[in-house]
Amino acid sequence: MKAFVFSFCTGMHSRGDKNSMKKHLAAAFSKKSLKMILAMILALTFMLSAAITPTPAFAEYDGDSSVNRRAPLSDDELASLTRTLGEPLGAQVSDADWGDDPEEIVEVAVQFITPPATALRLLDIDDGNMRIQSAGAYQQRALAAHTDFYAQLDRLIPDTPPGVVTPFSAPFEILSEHHSLFNGVFMRVPQYMVYQIAQLPEVFSVTPNYEVFLLTDNNELSGEFDATLDSDTVTTFSPGPAPTPLEPTFMQHSRNLFQIGYIHNTLDIRGRGVSVAVLDTGIDHRHPEFASFLDNGVIRGRNFTSSPHGLMDINGHGTHVSGIVIALAPDVELWHFKVMDDNGGGNVRRVIQGIEEAQFTGIDVINLSVGVRSASPDHLINYTVNNAVLDGIVAVVAVGNYGPDLFTVASPSIASLSIAVASSVGNSSVHNNSSVGPVPQTGHIKPDILAPGTAITSTWPSPHDGPPGQLYRAQSGTSMAAPHVAAVAALLLERHPSAEPYEIKALVMNTAVRLLDFPDSVFDIGAGLVNPRAALTTETLVTTSHIIPMGAGGATRIETMASLSFGAMTRNNPGRWATSIPVTIHNRSTSTQQYLITRVFSSRLTGRPSLTTPESVTIAAGETATFYATVQINSNTTLGLHYGFVNISGNNNVARVPFATAVISPWEAPIPRSQLFHDSRQHWAAGVRANTTNYIGWALANNITTGIAGTHPPEFRPNANVSRAQFTAFLYRIAEGGTPPRRPTLGFRDMNQGQWHHNYVAWAYSRGIVTGFHGDNTFRPGRPITREQLVVMLHRYVGGPAVPNVLGNFPDSGQVSSWARDSMNWAAHHGIIGRGGGNLNPGGNATRAETLAMLHRVVTTFNIPAP
Prior knowledge:
This protein is α/β, with parallel strands linked by helices. It is built from 20 helices and 29 strands. Strands 8, 9, 10, 12, 14, 15, 16 and 17 form an eight-stranded mixed sheet that branches. Strands 1, 20, 21, 23, 25 and 27 form a six-stranded antiparallel sheet that branches. The protein has a five-stranded mixed sheet with strand order 2-6-3-5-4. α16 packs across α17. The chain is globular.
């Protein structure tokens, strides 16, 4: 499989609030059926079934808290769950992350093999045969890994006499320790130590402490929209006068759109008894809108930055986001954890500290209007967010402002269990910059939901060292959309105080509505525009159950979801032509209900797959029924993304369940040029000229390479050099696909087991593709690869008989090294290089664009099969 490489996972437990364990809703599967479902999903060959299986609900919203909503995991499932922390990954660092100086001080996250305390507890809860230990016991088990790690780390630095400094006695600094949602440490170390640390027995992985960004659109607007969700007309934007303190139009457009007056006054739901924490740049507690939220004169919270202003917001972003929450849910218990500094900068470490503090404090809902430009679902920050949700926290996350291209959703919004929020322009369309799914590698649906994020007027801080200034300001971005949904989650938790996070997410998604003037693209809008009134009054809940990613290493869990993410299906493999996902309808009304089920494709591709479900289901009061939604393709199904909605009508409402699948074939067609990174759309390697190949789009579609990690906005850098190690990784992905298994340590002096590229180079060495530099027994992995070195490696990989000499056709053929002449001649003869005549430039460094062009030519010329 090339277009999407799967790595999934899941988990369930009883949610604990500040006073008692949260109560559970229905569990639809027995232990036997869960084992069957897991086995079938892992093979991606569910048995086809449309049979309806009514099952009794285990509990209502206010049911017995002692009822476990899912049967215990099997031994195989437990092994799958822990596999992520079983085989070390080493240093997950690319050449683009740092410079070439081995003494450069870098910040890294070191993840331990021993799972965090929360995961250890969840494993015991999932295993019904084990006695649940005290919280302190799980903490001690997690903390024991820290003791082991420090003992191992101490052995890295040899004893030296007092006052003697050696190259190996450079200091390192522990920045923070973690054991609850993520077990490990953040460190500041010399770069050369990263690979040594990665080889320690207790270390699972080492990753950079990536920068985190605010998700506000720089193109700020001012003004209001005036519409309601049941309006038949599209409203237009008109700037208004600057608001004054306690201006009655504060958040008025959102309150009108969501009929908040009805929710507050008629339903009498205002967020009482629910705690919401905003993780952001701080908050100006002096603002008059926050007067009723003060505790001893300040907002509850904690500062995790080095700002001399403490929790006070100097930036403005955190105050603006917090104002959106309280405007819609005015009786919540508001908290603020300052994880972004006064300039709006942050990093993964601070965000994880804030999430852990929310867990420790017993927060019900967290809002993260921040993101890191890592699109990997197994990124550490996504793992942490998923663990927090499994422990009972509703995590609402902005998807980012990197749209409108596909695959632009940011972490941690791609954490499967988060509620990922995109940005709308009122109730008419999606904001142009709102990030778009699907999730890279898995093809899963993100965002989950849409909320207003354009020209949102909310609270703004006064200057901290001057007279009061403007107290309200309009801002745009997914940063503004997310707190709308965080507030809705708080309202739902007041309405259903025992609901689990997955139930809150399903209520939000099931009741979403279509936009007035925008296609029903699930990768832009998720389930649609959030509809709080419907979410609070519905008596129907629809959930699905499928595999999701959870941590690095390919581990998987089955989780309760609210969408049908079928992932990738391979067109030329009949064994992969059908996939099924169970769907459960919960009838929470007091009478028997008939539900009509329809399937609507909103993608515009022809040659669609088939999607089958029952036509209707009848469910008694308080009961549930489970059926399978089955997607099936054939050899004529059009390649690409197919998506739409399963609409379940009954009980006076329509539940929208988005579905999507990616139909692929070996050597998937390239991603369109318009959807590439901004710095490569006009590059020759993107197929700008007529009748030329989109090499960059081809490489991205087939997971041969990605963008540059940590760039903001994301970049591809087609003219950047390719290192020798990077090229072995590209070649491995073409030959074998995915990630290589752990291999014995190579004999090169500059290579060791902990380096990210070690196993790629070891594979190439075992195949005779690389030999290293014989003079000093090095490989020089970080050195740029020259064009002739690259061609030699390609020739060794492909092989083949001698070919006629054509080097004389090139004016610089005399510059080709003697050891590379046969290979350069082979490449020129087959059109791998020198297609346009001119020079060969054998000693020049190969750029990313040139490398991908040569790889594509080799694949097509020699019919290299897809792995």
